[in-house]
C-alpha cells in the first residue's frame, strides 16, 4: 500500500538540506519522501521548492493504485479479470512505493533534526491515525470492544510503523558490506517463521524490508536508466505477460501471499516450496516495480503537485473504503461486481484519493502530518552555533 511520507541526498554525497528544513516536505516523506536536488534527465519544467516531478508523479500514481486496489477488494470476487488485475497491482504497488521511500532515506544518519522529523512526520501520524481508526471501527462498525493498541496496526497504518523501523535502521544498512543479501535473508526467514508475532505487524515489516534496502542502494542513474525509451518499450510485453499469467492463476492463488503478513506454514505450504514462492514473488515484484517506474512520466503534469500530499490520501482513503464496507454499500449494490460497476468503483476511488491529496486537505491536516512541535524538542548545538 505508503505511503504511506523528509529531506534526502545523493548517496554518498553530503546531506541535502533543502527538504530537511522545509515544513511542507514533511508529510510526503512518510509515504515516498519528496526529493531534493535530484533532477531527472528529461525534466525541463521548473520545479517548485526543489522537487522532482518524476518522483511526485510516481507517488501520486502509486497512491491511486493503492486506493483502487482497496476499493476492489469488497466487489471483485465475481470477476476473474478483476482478481487478476488486483493481483498484478498488489505485486508491485507497495514494493515500488517502498523502493522510492528507501531511495530518499539515504541521507538519514540519526542526527537530531532527522530524529525530530522521524517523530513528527511518521511516529505522530501513526499514533493519531491508529487511535482514529480504532475509534472509527468502534462506532462505525458498532464494535465497542475493538481495542486501541499502538502495537497492533490497523488496516493501512502498518506502513507508518514499518517506515519508522526501516528508517531507524538506515545507518546500519549503509554500513554493512552486503546489505541486499542480508535484507533478503531476513525477509526469507520472516516468511518461514510462523511464531514471529503480530506486534507492529513485524512479519510484514521484515518481508518488505528488502525493497527498502534496495532503495537505499539505488542511485539517480538507475532511475534514468529505467526511463530510457528501450526500457519503456520492454514494459509492454512484461506487463502483458504478467496479466495473462495472473488471469490463469487467479482462481487458484491465495491473495495472502501478496500481503506478506504471515508465514508460508500458516498458508499450508511446507517451508521449502513456500520459500520458492517467496523468492519468485520478490522477483516478480522487482520486475513489475521497474516497469511501473519506467512508465512514470518525468515532466510536470496536472497531478504532479498532488504527489506532495500522498500521506493525506493514503491515511484518509481507508476511512472511506471501510465506511462503505461497514455500512453495507458494497453488499447492497451487487452490480458493483460487474464490469460497469468495477469501472465506476475505479473512477470513484481514483477521484476520491485525488481530492484527498489536494493542497486544501493537506493544509487542514498539516497540524498532524507536518507539525513543527518546536516546543517539544531541545535545540542541539549545531542549530545554536550559527545564532551565537
TrEMBL record:
Sequence intervals crossing the membrane: 84-105, 117-136, 148-166, 231-250, 270-295, 302-321, 333-357
Highest rank taxon of the organism: Bacteria
Keywords attached to this entry: Acyltransferase, Membrane, Transferase, Transmembrane, Transmembrane helix
GO molecular function, one term: acyltransferase activity
The keyword DNA-binding appears for this protein: no
Pfam families: Acyl_transf_3
Residues covered by the Acyltransferase domain: 53-349
UniProt region (Disordered), positions on chain: 1-47
Keyword Transcription: no
PANTHER family noted in UniProt: MEMBRANE-BOUND ACYLTRANSFERASE YKRP-RELATED
Protein name: Acyltransferase family protein
Amino acid at each position: 500500500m505508503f505511503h504511506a511520507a523528509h529531506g534526502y541526498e545523493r548517496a554518498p554525497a553530503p546531506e541535502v538540506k533543502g527538504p530537511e528544513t522545509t515544513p511542507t516536505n514533511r508529510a510526503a516523506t512518510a509515504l515516498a519522501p519528496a526529493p531534493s536536488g535530484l533532477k531527472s534527465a528529461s525534466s525541463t519544467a521548473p520545479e517548485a521548492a526543489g522537487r522532482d516531478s518524476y518522483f511526485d508523479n510516481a507517488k501520486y500514481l502509486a497512491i491511486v493504485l493503492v486506493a483502487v486496489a482497496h476499493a476492489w477488494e469488497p466487489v471483485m470476487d465475481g470477476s476473474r479479470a478483476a482478481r487478476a488485475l488486483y493481483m498484478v497491482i498488489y505485486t508491485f504497488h507497495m514494493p515500488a512505493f517502498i523502493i522510492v521511500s528507501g531511495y530518499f532515506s539515504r541521507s538519514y544518519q540519526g542526527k537530531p533534526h532527522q530524529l525530530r522529523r522521524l517523530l513528527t512526520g511518521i511516529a505522530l501520524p501513526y499514533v493519531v491515525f491508529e487511535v482514529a481508526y480504532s475509534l472509527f471501527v468502534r462506532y462505525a462498525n458498532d464494535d465497542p470492544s475493538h481495542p486501541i493498541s499502538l502495537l497492533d496496526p490497523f488496516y493501512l497504518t502498518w506502513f507508518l510503523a514499518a517506515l519508522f523501523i526501516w528508517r531507524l535502521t538506515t545507518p546500519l544498512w549503509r554500513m554493512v558490506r552486503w546489505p541486499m543479501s542480508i535484507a533478503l535473508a531476513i525477509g526469507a526467514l520472516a516468511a518461514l517463521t510462523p511464531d514471529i508475532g503480530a506486534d507492529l505487524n513485524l512479519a510484514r515489516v521484515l518481508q518488505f524490508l528488502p525493497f527498502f534496502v534496495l532503495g537505499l542502494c539505488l542511485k539517480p542513474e538507475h532511475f534514468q536508466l529505467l526511463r530510457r525509451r528501450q526500457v519503456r518499450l520492454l514494459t509492454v510485453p512484461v506487463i502483458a505477460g504478467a496479466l495473462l499469467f495472473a488471469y490463469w492463476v487467479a482462481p487458484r492463488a491465495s491473495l495472502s501471499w501478496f500481503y506478506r503478513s504471515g508465514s508460508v506454514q500458516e498458508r499450508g505450504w511446507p517451508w521449502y516450496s513456500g520459500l520458492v514462492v517467496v523468492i519468485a514473488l520478490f522477483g516478480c515484484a522487482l520486475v513489475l516495480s521497474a516497469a511501473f517506474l519506467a512508465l512514470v512520466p518525468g515532466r510536470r503534469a496536472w497531478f504532479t503537485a498532488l504527489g506532495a500530499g500522498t500521506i493525506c490520501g493514503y491515511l484518509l482513503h481507508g476511512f472511506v473504503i471501510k465506511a462503505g464496507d461497514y455500512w453495507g454499500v458494497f453488499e447492497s449494490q451487487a452490480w458493483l461486481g460487474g464490469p460497469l460497476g468495477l469501472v465506476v468503483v475505479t473512477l470513484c476511488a481514483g477521484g476520491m484519493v485525488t481530492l484527498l491529496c489536494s493542497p486544501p486537505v493537506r493544509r487542514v491536516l498539516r497540524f498532524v502530518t507536518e507539525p513543527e512541535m518546536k516546543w517539544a524538542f531541545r535545540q542541539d548545538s549545531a542549530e545554536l552555533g550559527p545564532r551565537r
